[in-house]
Amino acid sequence: MSSAEELLRSRGLRVTRPRLAVLDVLAAGGHLEVEEITRQVRERLDSVSTQAVYDVLGALSRAGLSRRIEPAGSPARYEARVGDNHHHVVCRGCGMIADVDCAVGEAPCLEPHSAHGFEVDEAEVTFWGLCPSCQARRTADD
Ligand SMILES: [Zn+2]
Ligand SMILES: [Zn+2]
Ligand SMILES: [Zn+2]
């Protein structure tokens, strides 16, 4: 049994070929759009609809096996790095996303002065800036 199968079973999810294929795609790392995930899943399985991929990603996210992030102005992206409360740095120039380890480590890493009675379990921190290649392009354009 593969570790992906064990992962699905450990979360009470049925093992299906589309779920295994999506986990396999996400395991390579990065923050992928649904379109890209679907393209790569189709290299592994004959026919999978985009809706089926959305359904799989929904099930994996609810089970805590994938994480969905959606920086402002960008389509939703999915990653397999879960459970470590890491954050993201997003390039304003090209949209590139990289992981940033949380300085605190546990969620929520920021405590609001007042949470209006909410029990806060997450602080979504996104750093924005220019990636190295966009910085180089900016310098070259000057
Ligand atoms: Zn960039
Ligand atoms: Zn990430
Ligand atoms: Zn943090």
Automatic annotation (TrEMBL):
It comes from Micromonospora costi. Pfam families: FUR. This is Transcriptional repressor. One of its GO terms (biological process) is negative regulation of DNA-templated transcription. Its cofactor is Mn(2+); Fe(2+); Zn(2+). Belongs to the Fur family. GO terms for cellular component: cytoplasm. Fe cation binds at residue 106. Binds 1 Mn(2+) or Fe(2+) ion per subunit. Binds 1 zinc ion per subunit. Gene3D superfamilies: 3.30.1490.190, Winged helix-like DNA-binding domain superfamily/Winged helix DNA-binding domain (1.10.10.10). GO terms for molecular function: DNA-binding transcription factor activity; transcription cis-regulatory region binding; zinc ion binding. It comes from the Bacteria. Keywords: Cytoplasm, DNA-binding, Iron, Metal-binding, Repressor, Transcription, Transcription regulation, Zinc. Zn(2+) binds at residues 91, 94, 131, 134. Its main location: cytoplasm. It is found in: Cytoplasm.
